[in-house]
Amino acid sequence: MPPLHALAIFAAGIAAGGINTLVGSGTLITFPILLAFGYAPVTANVSNTVGLVPGSVAGAVGYRHELAGQRARALRFATASTAGGIVGAVLLLSLPASAFKDIVPAFIVIALVLIVLQPRIGRALENRRRRVDGHPGPLAMVAVFATGIYGGYFGAAQGIMLLAILGLSLPTETLQRVNALKVVLAGLVNLVAGIIFIFAAHVAWLPALLIAVGSIIGGIAGARWGRRLPPPALRAVIVVVGITAIVRLV
Question: How many structural domains compose the chain?
Answer without folding.
Answer: 1
